[in-house]
# Entry
Amino acid sequence: MTLFEKADRIGGLLRYGIPDFKMEKWVIDRRLEQMQAEGVIFKTNVSVGKDISGEELRREFDAVGLTMGAEQARELPIPGRELKGIHLAMDYLTQQNKRNAGDTITDEPITAKGKRVVIIGGGDTGSDCLGTTHRHDCSEVHQFELLPEPPPERAGSTPWPLWPMQLRTSHAHEEGCDRQWSVSTTKFTGHNGHVTKLHGQRVGFESGKFMPIPNSDFEMDVDLVLLAMGFTGPVKNGLLDSLGVKYDVRGNVAVDENFMTNLDGVFAGGDTKRGASLIVWAIAEGRKMAAGVDKYLQVGNSAKKLVS
Ligand SMILES: Cc1cc2nc3c(=O)[nH]c(=O)nc-3n(C[C@H](O)[C@H](O)[C@H](O)COP(=O)(O)OP(=O)(O)OC[C@H]3O[C@@H](n4cnc5c(N)ncnc54)[C@H](O)[C@@H]3O)c2cc1C
# Structure
């Protein structure tokens, strides 16, 4: 089995998304050693779709698994977005993970040291950015969320066993943060090409729509803005579109009960198939996808044909 990875190290978001203060990387290294001993070949710095085409992989291998995550970040297309000092959360987190691993950073360094920071997005990625800004010794940090503040206890609209809608406070929040909800950022302005101000307004949330609250406009001084507004799904432009895989209604790669896509012998699992999710799901789906591949290889034919 050969695993192709476009980054310089194996591990996906566990390596380059999740900060060390939440998960130390020896956990991944231990598992990689085990997999290598079992015969898995790891090839890093290979971007499939650029360095080698999907069709080449299909010709060279009996089955192909697409586990390329859901890396398409949600953008904030507002005036001033192009100013320096405004970064996607993943650029910030990846760089810090590389720094922690002892790498020399050759890209423009992104650091919160001594800076006034705003994190846009109130989810887990934002919380990981927050913990990182504390470790960079920022001068102040604010986290803005568009949605209203959730209730302190489980909302009645999400009874067990539904995922409870309620306020979550991570250890990064406990370390300190000005958290604000119902805030929409409307534009950035700057000086000499660098962001200096964030402009926003308060919004209400009615019938699924965000409505600006009159006379609630504000502006604040800022040195660093981190965009942590989630992910819209797997990157389609490139490998996925060139292969011709079909997508589900949410824009993730669609699979059948054996985790096979519409293409014979091409499988998908993890965030590529379910959208940005959790490690436990990636592990569970990786195993199910592997079982689907095994079934497919054993019959030497399409698993689809086997079950139908
Ligand atoms: C900041 C952050 C914090 C998180 N914290 C938690 C947490 O605390 N707990 C939890 O359960 N989950 C957490 N998650 C979610 C969890 O990390 C993911 O659900 C999980 O890693 C998904 O695994 P995956 O293998 O499907 O995809 P990924 O981990 O995204 O791995 C995909 C890999 O494919 C590579 N790749 C992509 N395209 C190509 C290509 N064309 N060629 C070669 N390689 C390619 C990528 O470089 C990447 O290494 C977090 C996510 C983020 C962003």
About this structure: The chain has a mean pLDDT of 95. The radius of gyration is 22 Å. Residues 257 and 292 are 8 Å apart (CA to CA).
